[in-house]
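Protocol step 4 of 5: obtain the predicted structure for the target chain.
Materials: sequence only (see below). No template structures provided, no constraints applied. The aim of this step is simply to have a reference model before the mutagenesis design in step 5. Sequence pasted as it appears in the construct record:
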Amino acid sequence: MKIAGICNKDTAVGLRFAGVQELYVPDEDAVNIWKELSERDDIGVVFVTEKIAEDISRELNEYRLRNTLPIVVEIPDKKGRRKDHMDYVSQLIKKAVGIEISKDER
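Step 4 output (structure tokens):
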């Protein structure tokens, strides 16, 4: 399975260095890119910047309710993590294992 990314130009550079080959930088219409990727059988993980995930949140939420692959991982862009961010990967772990993952801040 392949890893893909829907992100801004700066994040795309970082993901390219990390080895992600399929990167999409939407000008306006991230929904069509998401629909194309979500219908492919060879994509296992899609990294989406939080800003773009917010723009296509309705489509992502509907997809997450019905499908397990590709796994959508929302990542911060160069401006950092958004305060209202919901960590879906931690929710998947909690659902699968039954244990909540939390960061202990000291």
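Step 4 remarks: The chain has a mean pLDDT of 82. Residues 57-66 form the longest helix (10 residues).
Proceed to step 5.
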